[in-house]
Amino acid sequence: MIRAAIDADAPGIVALIAACWAEYPGCVMDDAEVPELRALGTHYAAKGGRAWVAERDGAIVGLVGVAPLNAGAWEIGKMYVSSGARGTGLAQALLATAEDHARAGCAAELRLWSDTRFTRAHRFYEAASYVSAGPIRALHDVSNSIEFAYAKPVAGCVVRRLDAAGAASAERRLAAILKACVDGGASVSYLPPLDIEVARGFARKTASGVALGGRVLLVAWLDGVLVGSVQLDLATPPNQPHRTELQKLLVLPHVRRRGVARALMLAADAEAVNEGRTLMTLDTRADDAAEPLYRSLGWIEAGRIPGYALNPDGTAHATVLFYRLV
Questions:
Q1: Are 295 and 282 in contact (CB under 8 A)?
Q2: Which of 325, 214, 221, 217 is nearest to 263 (CA)?
Q3: What is the largest CA-CA distance in the chain?
Q4: Which of 62, 215, 257, 320 maximizes the CB count within 10 A of its CB?
């Protein structure tokens, strides 16, 4: 049962957090450093937020809180689930409860901090479409805690450029998007069914390109879920410093026709200008669903190459070459 946290829950909350911290070397619970745990309900209410606990057989097995920060940003905090309750969907339910409350409070973005040692938590947040955002921070506590920052927009369709850390943290989401698109029939260099490890390898290569400065990665969230991406290849030859190639426009099949691809393309235009590029190029399968989108955005057909790539059934299809001046 998930219910609002009350101050009387303090002993159970402290026990839960202490047990979770004990799973990691060097993490020590000193409740003097977190006095708000003695009255967590009051603490979050005073900040304009709310906290919840999950109970099972009279014991507290889960916890989460959320409170406003500033200008539409809310912060998720105190997210813990006991080891025996993991893998049951409880963590997802707690996080959804906090996120829904923040949305009801007109949150545009959610942020959180996670100890660098909590690798299981990182995977959980990344699966929920959070990405690494901003520098780390040191708490200077008895556990010598250093924390990663995570964030995601939660209202409408939002496109952002990811740095190398953000791209690396989005690996699993980006791999899942690539697999869903390829398995759904998209012609983006791979054939279905796409092995998820191959997709993850592609995502890692993308993050490496971002880190080396040769690639721009733009990702799109729709109502808090990371659903699409597009890339700009900046690693052009020395005699083409003014050109960039747009690659891998990907949107999850079930959210297409909701403006995500168009938002990604417009953001790609802006990033090309920011990078000092004046000519953009791309290629796409002839008669593909994206072709009308490119034309509507001012992309000009330069020609087509017959039999350029193969369909899943082994037949060949033509590829259309487009360019755009920006």
A1: no
A2: 221
A3: 72
A4: 62
Strands 279-285, 243-251: pairing is parallel
pTM score, whole prediction: 0.96
Per-residue pLDDT tens digits for 79-114: 999 999 999 999 999 999 999 999 999 999 999 999
Residues 92, 167: one domain?
A: no
Q: Which two tokens stand for residue 90?
A: 């409880």
Buried b (16+ CB within 10 A) or exposed e, 109-125: bbbbbbbebbeebbebb
The per-residue DSSP string of 217-233 comes to EEEEEETTEEEEEEEEE
For residues 265 and 324, what is the distance between their CA atoms, to the nearest angstrom? Answer: 12
One domain for residues 135 and 242: no
The pLDDT tens digits of the residues spanning 257-309 come to 999 999 999 999 999 999 999 999 999 999 998 999 999 999 999 999 999 99
> Which amino acid does the sequence have at 176?
A
Same domain, 136 and 166: no
Query: CA of 229: how far to CAs of 115, 160, 203, 206, 317, in Å?
Result: 28, 9, 11, 11, 24
Specify whether the CB–CB gap between 204 and 171 falls below 8 A: yes
| Residue that is last in its domain, among 152, 171, 187 | 152
- Helix, strand, coil % over all residues of the chain, rounded to 5: 35, 35, 30
DSSP string, 272-302: HHHTT--EEEEEEETT-TTHHHHHHTT-EEE
Is 284 in contact with 189 (CB distance < 8 Å)? no
What is the mean pLDDT of the segment spanning 32-39? 95
pLDDT tens profile 138-163? 999 999 999 999 999 999 999 999 99
Q: Which range of residues forms the domain containing residue 36?
A: 2-152
pLDDT > 90? residue 71: no
